[in-house]
Amino acid sequence: MTDSVKFFLPEEKMPKAWYNLAADLPVPLPPPLHPGTGQPLGPDDLAPIFPQAVIAQEMTTERWIDIPEPVQDVYRLWRPAPLIRARRLEKALGTPAKIYFKYEGVSPAGSHKPNTAVPQAFYNQQEGIKRLSTETGAGQWGSSLAFAGSLFGIEVEVFMVKISYNQKPYRRALMETYGARCIASPSTLTACGRAVLDKDPHSNGSLGIAISEAVEVAASRDDTKYALGSVLNHVCLHQTVIGEEAMLQMEMAGDSPDVIVACTGGGSNFAGLAFPYIRENLKGAKTRIVAVEPASCPTLTKGKYAYDFGDTGHLTPLVKMHTLGSTFMPPGSHSGGLRYHGMAPMVSHVKELGLCEATSYAQTECFAAAVAFARAEGIVPAPESSHAVKGAIVEALRCKAEGKAETILFNLSGHGHFDMQAYTDYFSGTLKDLPYDERELEAALSSLPQVG
Ligand SMILES: *Cc1c(COP(=O)(O)O)cnc(C)c1O
């Protein structure tokens, strides 16, 4: 047994392939459907908005997908990301549990999102695309794609959810530093945006609306494609470098996790850490896998598993997922990255098959956990990641109560250096746990599209 704190993989041990859980699912994923015809989607349907290589990855059931050399080259700017044993947090909690975290905040944009932004920009460049449009909630994804675009010579246009655009001017500045253009959504640049503004001129925006705007731009211009930062199969695929690295690092630590915890917005950082472990569970391992979501946007715990649109403007395909309804407007929260009505179809499917658990916590208890973590370990978590920190602390305290020395591994998906206003609000007591509107949720769920 080592008393090391950080477990670094040498660069040459960085995974050379992404892992595709679709190859090993005991029940295949329900297919995405065309929004007009209700028929299963073909590759041609996605061609206006995604490059061919990405579409192929979206649909493949091949187990391992090689990571292209130019993508590995960029990954090496920060990967392999460290695995850290939170010894001081263990001590502060007085738990016999061992707590490890995979730290994705070391990327240039400060989160796990460049893991998929980089390959997406690369595949678009390979197919001659000059511009990418996208949406961003808290700004993590927009800055990640802006960073990736700058490396591959692609112009990036980001529709940023208005409430975050106003709350997080430094994320905007970061995107502009990487050369991207950032627009508050809903905007007057698109028909979707104008329709929302007509009904509600003071709309705070939502990820669903921003996605509609970005898709509309990509669909209407030949030189522009669209990139999504979460939810889709290819995004979950790209994120599996996290779990593959973590497995090798846990081995270096001479340990293996009894329980894995990650936060879920669209599901990608969770998928990234959990899917390789679910592969092992399907072969007989018994790691508990816990998804943590915000109580104000409880997709996995309160949503319906049904076909729904990925966006508010109903331009995207219908996918089967846990959803709160595409018209559901979650209350304003500082975890912008978790305010999405849906969930990755792959993560939803895994939940439905009983291959993971899900739980939710309110934002103030997550900030309390994040502060305790920062005071023990030094790293200030992103508000999104604070949900994983909370989930890990709950598990550690359960171990303490039960007198069990379990091993906990969680994904610290990003740092909170651009989110200090949220911490200020938490300390001043102005950060509130806003409940979602039950009636609005009921209405959004009752208007789900009718599918077979
Ligand atoms: C975007 C984001 C999330 C939520 O997205 P997932 O696809 O669920 O991972 C979580 N943490 C951070 C730091 C983010 O930027």
Low-pLDDT stretches: none
In total, the number of strands is 15
Number of domains: 2
Q: Would you state the CATH class of the largest domain? A: Alpha Beta
Subunit structure: Tetramer of two alpha and two beta chains.
Pfam family, one: PALP
EC number: 4.2.1.20
Pathway: Amino-acid biosynthesis; L-tryptophan biosynthesis; L-tryptophan from chorismate: step 5/5
Protein model, in words:
The longest helix has 20 residues. This protein has two domains: 259 residues, Rossmann fold; 153 residues, Rossmann fold, CATH 3.40.50.1100. It has 452 residues and is α/β, with parallel strands linked by helices. The strands form four sheets. It has a seven-stranded mixed sheet with strand order 1-4-5-15-10-11-14, with helices on both faces. Strands 8-7-6-9 form a four-stranded parallel sheet, sandwiched between helices. Pyridoxal-5'-phosphate binds next to helix 6, helix 13 and helix 17. The site of pyridoxal-5'-phosphate has 20 residues, from helix 6, helix 13 and helix 17.
